[in-house]
Amino acid sequence: MKIKTCVTLLCAAFVAAGISATASAAKIGVSMPTQSLQRWNQDGANMKAQLEKAGYEVELLYAGDNDIPTQVNQIENMISGGDDVLVIAAIDGSALTEVLKGAKEKKIPVISYDRLIMNTDAVSYYATFDNFKVGQIQGHFLEDALKLKDAATTPKNIEFFTGPTDDNNVNFFWGGALEVLQPYLDNGKLVCKSGQTTKEQAATLNWNNEEAQKRMENLISSCGYGPEGTKLDAVLCSNDSTANGVTNALLSEGYDASNFPIVTGQDCDRPSVKNIKKGYQAMSVFKDTRTLAAQVVKMVDEIIKGQPVEVNDTKTYNNGTGVIPSFLCTPVIGTKDNYKKLLIDSGYYKESEI
Ligand code: GAL
User: What is the value of pTM for the model shown?
Assistant: First the structure.
């Protein structure tokens, strides 16, 4: 799958009846999945601050801890309460079909935030990071770190962790990483001793850190991994919360910075950056939530003002009712070597926080 991030297309403006023409008159509903992961708190806070700065009234709601009925309820209330545009990061991409019929009826534009909302024609736009690229960055990092291209390299042991299959992003994270790694599984350079190499087998409910930890503990005992046991060279983790669970299990098993398997991640969440500094997790992928928030605020503004909405991908994201015009922001790698420049100098974190 090739994603054309470089082409900037201008999509026809979504001029819906009933939308106020000025920022000051408009109320924007922002629905976020959970407060239990740092990134969503950051996303919510950035969206609220930037929308308010642009003059909008903001209704920001978190759906408990990934509680689908709560999210449905909150969206229903946003629709009946007269919000002018909805920005939604779905818990389960396929669980909002019914409730969004109300948005469609009232001609309330819906922006799918970070994760694509599936099976509804109520979604006008999608703003996210290039999720396939996230997986590719992780795959290439492992390919380099394990020297898989090198003919002299002996087979390396790897295990796989990704997110829940109801998050459409997982298809892209997994697809991007496996595009790089599958040939090495096929030619025997990579060996997955558990045999759990499908997306479904590697899935983690709600991206839950403890679930990932439990599964890693099981793999340690069933495959005999350990500093004194079977060598575990790498663990592909699609994001930081799964990486943290895996890291906890490996630390309990006695691994330390001198022999830690190469663990990947995504989000540059604070616990992961701390682990990167300590030499446990090897990398993360930085998706600057300020950039995504700024792009979505721009989209909201263009919608409200009846202007053309800027997108840069009109091919990749089909939600089951058609391709949703999307804006893909660019993810970048975060490691021990560049975290200062990336996260501290850019003002994302204070050194004391990580
Ligand atoms: C994904 C998101 C990732 C990560 C994960 C867990 O959909 O793109 O950045 O945060 O959810 O919340």
Answer: 0.92
If we measure between CA atoms, which residue out of 262, 208, 202 comes closest to residue 240? 208
Average pLDDT over residues 247-269: 98
Average pLDDT over the chain reads 93
Q: Say if CB 34 and CB 64 are below 8 A apart.
A: yes
Closest ligand 1 atom, residue 115 Cα? 7
CATH 3.40.50.2300 fits 5-129+288-329, yes or no: yes
Q: What spatial distance separates the first Cα and last Cα of the chain, rounded to whole Å?
A: 36
Mean pLDDT of the 306-310 span: 96
Q: Which CATH superfamily is domain 131-286 in?
A: Response regulator (3.40.50.2300)
Structure confidence at residue 25 as a pLDDT band (50, 70, 90): confident
Q: To 10 degrees, the CA torsion angle through 212, 214, 220, 226?
A: 80
**Do 159 and 126 form a contact (C-beta atoms < 8 A)?**
no
Percent of the chain at pLDDT > 90 equals: 93
- Among 35, 62, 65, 114, the mutation site with the greatest number of ligand 1 atoms within 8 A of its Cβ is 114
Taking the domains of the chain in order of start, what are their residue ranges? Answer: 5-129+288-329, 131-286
Structure confidence by residue, pLDDT tens digits, 87-105: 999 999 999 999 999 999 9
Which DSSP category does 248 fall into? H
Q: Which residues have any ligand 1 atom within 6 Å of their CB?
A: 37, 39, 114-115, 163, 167, 169, 207, 239, 241, 266-267, 287
